[in-house]
Structure formats: C-alpha cells, structure tokens
Amino acid sequence: GYTVAWLYWLTWTVALGSSFTAAGFCMQYWFPQVPVWTWCVVFCVVIFALNVISRRFFAEGEFWFSLVKVITIIAFIILGGAAIFGFIPM
C-alpha cells in the first residue's frame, strides 16, 4: 500500500508536468516569441488558483472547460458533415 501510494502520486505528478509542457508547446505555435516555460508557469498558476480558491470555483471552472470541449466536438462534427456533403468547398 505504501509503495503503491507513492507510485500513484509520482505518476500523476509526471502526467501533470507533461500536460503543462504539451500546453506550452501548443501555445508556442501561436506565440513563438514567448518561451515554453512561461506558458507552463501560466497554466500551473491557473490550475493552482482553481484548486486553492474554493471547491465551488474549481467545479465552476471545470464545468466551463468541459463545455468548451463539448462545443468544439459538436462544431467539428457539424463542419465535418458539411464538408462531406459538399456544403464546404474543398
């Protein structure tokens, strides 16, 4: 149990760091003059602030982030269908 708990913590720590780095590289595409580590710090501060302020604020943030994902998926489905049926010229 003790070792499993530490390995679980280590796994999520590495996964979170990898996610911050990936987000930094994604943002560097649009803002090439800003270093990757800056974006990592920005996203880390946002996640930390969401967790520190209150549970309600964290839940509200998660709701809106999830809503953005759902709307994006629906938009891609609609745009893909429009492209398949010829409504969007390629």
From TrEMBL:
Membrane topology classification: Multi-pass membrane protein
InterPro entries, sorted: AA-permease/SLC12A_dom
Protein's UniProt name: S-methylmethionine permease
GO BP terms, alphabetized: transmembrane transport
Domain annotation Amino acid permease/ SLC12A: ranges: 1-87
Pfam families: AA_permease
Gene Ontology CC annotations of this record: membrane
Entry's localization field: Membrane
Keywords: Membrane, Transmembrane, Transmembrane helix, Transport
Record's keyword annotation contains Membrane: yes
Residues that span the membrane, as ranges: 7-30, 36-54, 66-88
Chain coiled-coil ranges: none
